Amino acid sequence: MDKSKLFQQFVRFTSSVHQVTNDMTKEIKIENITTVQYKILEFITVSQPVTLSEISECLHLSLPNSSRELKKLIQSQLCEKIIDPNDRRKFDICLTENGTVLMNKVFRQLEINFQERIKNLTDSELKEVEEAINILQTKFFA
């Protein structure tokens, strides 16, 4: 196995993933929410509870920028800090009920976009896609 060739294939794949993600989300506009704030909400949705450091690291934001954007989302009542009872300096971040409702609405639209992209695949092809995602998830992204 040529690992260099595999790496190049991986780079093309991840670039394609970013492009498809952008294509699927670009039409989703949430009033008073910036793109960065949406990415934070999306990360919290799939990973909660999260820490400020995890948000910063995953989204390639500085801690001050992450903190500032998180503060705006908290003020908008879309997410909340859950203080660690053993150490009041530490906290986790979760969606509020309003944030959960909003992100469920967004994910329903994303699912419509996803269904549109896969509508012409056969059952056999859908099974292949499912298996490929499972393999990537367990062997590489875990």
TrEMBL record:
Keywords of the record: DNA-binding, Transcription, Transcription regulation
Species in which this protein is naturally found: Sediminibacillus halophilus
Protein name, per record: DNA-binding transcriptional regulator, MarR family
Pfam families: MarR (PF01047)
Keyword Metal-binding annotated: no
SMART domains tied to this protein: HTH_MARR (SM00347)
InterPro entries (alphabetical): HTH_MarR-typ, WH-like_DNA-bd_sf, WH_DNA-bd_sf
Annotated ranges, domain HTH marR-type: 3-138
Molecular-function GO terms, alphabetical: DNA binding; DNA-binding transcription factor activity
The keyword DNA-binding appears for this protein: yes
Gene3D superfamilies: Winged helix-like DNA-binding domain superfamily/Winged helix DNA-binding domain
